[in-house]
Amino acid sequence: MKTEQLVEALVADRAAGRRPISMALAAALALGGAVSLVLFLVDLGVRADIGPALATWRFDLKIAMVLVAFSLAFALCLDCARPDPSGPPMRRLLPLAALAILAVVVELAIVPGTSWGARLVGSNSLICLSAIPLLSIAPLAAVLAILKRGAPASPALAGAAAGLLAATSGATLYAFHCFDDSPLFVVTWYSLAAIPVIAAGALVGRRLLRW
Amino acid sequence: MADLDDLSALMRSARRGDDEAYRRLLVAVAAWLRGVVRRGLVSAGRGAADCEDIVQETLLAVHLKRDTWDETRPIAPWLRAIARHKLADHLRRRGFTDHVDIDDHADSLELAVQADAASSLESRQILASLPERQRRIVQEISLEGRGAADVARSLGMSEGAVRVTLHRALKALAVFYRQDRR
Asked: What is the nearest CA distance from B138 to chain A, expressed in angstroms?
């Protein structure tokens, strides 16, 4: 086949108009998130004291942190799906790092040193470490399926970004179950829980997202 | 057409449904790629024998991944990134791990190179690896230059089914290019 002949085949294939990858990614997250939501409701459920919790700044800050993480990971994922990302993709996460550091500093400043340990360890750390990865499985599969349409500069990095996005969606659900609201707990254990999901995404992505 | 970035307008028109703009874009990109790939192969110490295959593989990637170009940005960095990725991928499969840099090559389309008259042997073998129906549709549209509607009539298929089959065939070709040349 000559190249001019290939061009004719490509022109004939042009008609298929597809929706932008950002919309497809949002739809996939809704689908994967719905599966995780069912898992969440069956397995964990919303904490009993959700009403009073909503009125505390620590709970609100926790929800704000996971939502910021989620939206930054979404942008990171789209960046990593491109062959020519504008600037280092990781810079997208700087606001999250700043927010996490600020939250930890404020907590350390207003809470007496004697209760730092208790707040850090909390009472749900093991549940957190298993629930967030579990709630991330369906979103990770959905996100990776959409990223296959992309042309990532680095397939492993794109897979890791998919893992982070899946972990933040799992964490968003989990945050409504867990009653450890201290930033010390959230920053430590939520981050640790995301690591296996990010690693799984990078490992699968390295092969799956090659193009 | 002096510069790669002038192709942005063609790609935008193509996205709005202008077939002729898309054809002109692909022909210009293929000619530019030929120069870039040939120089890349030579500077890596390889002969230019695989050049046309890499051009075709890269052109397929430009087509299949065209959604990843952001219209608000110039198209040249996007095209260079795809060309660099495909060339590096090719050299890696052949045991070269050196960093491939095509950025120092000019973007001028005046350096574009015409294809050799001979069609590539490997691409013909790759076409033969497609399932019967996919191969027939690709051949009738590309080699005989017939439209999808025309092919649909002669095969007793709907035009939509021909387009779906064509798209599957192109995706399969992209996979064959990547996997079959170890």
From this structure: 6
Model ipTM value:
0.84
Residue A86 sits at the vertex; the CA angle it makes with A83 and B94, to the nearest 5 degrees, is 30
Q: What average pLDDT does this structure show over A37-55? A: 93
Which residue of B lies nearest to A5 if distances are taken between CA atoms? B142
Phi, psi (deg, nearest 5) at residue A178 = -75, 135
Candidate from A1, A21, A81 with C-beta closest to B127: A1
The Cα of A156 is separated from the nearest Cα of chain B by a number of Å equal to 14
| Token output for A134 | 């579990």
User: In chain B, pLDDT over 90 holds for what percent of residues?
Assistant: 26
- Whether residue B65 and residue A150 make contact (CB cut-off 8 A), yes or no, is yes
B106 three-class SS: coil
Q: Contact, A76 vs A165, CB < 8 A?
A: yes
Question: In a 10 Å sphere around its CB, with 0-12 CB exposed, 13-18 middle and 19+ buried, how is residue A122 labelled?
Answer: buried
Q: Is the pLDDT of residue A147 over 70?
A: yes
| Type of residue found at B45 | G
**Closest Cα in chain A, distance from residue B158 (Å):** 15
Question: Is the minimum CB–CB distance between B63 and chain A shorter than 8 Å?
Answer: yes
Give CA angle at B32 (A20, B88), nearest 5°: 75
Q: What is the pLDDT of residues A178-192, one digit of tens each?
A: 999 999 999 999 999
Taking only the tens place, the pLDDT of each residue in A18-33 is 778 899 999 999 999 9
Q: What percent of chain B has pLDDT over 70?
A: 81
Residues of B in contact with A11 (CB under 8 A): 19, 22-23, 26
B46 touches chain A (CB under 8 A): no
State the DSSP string of B1-28. --SGGGHHHHHHHHHTT-HHHHHHHHHH
Pairwise pLDDT comparison (A168 vs B107), residue with the higher score: A168
Residue B113 phi, psi (nearest 5): -120, 140
pLDDT tens-digit readout, B12-39 = 888 888 889 999 999 999 999 999 998 8
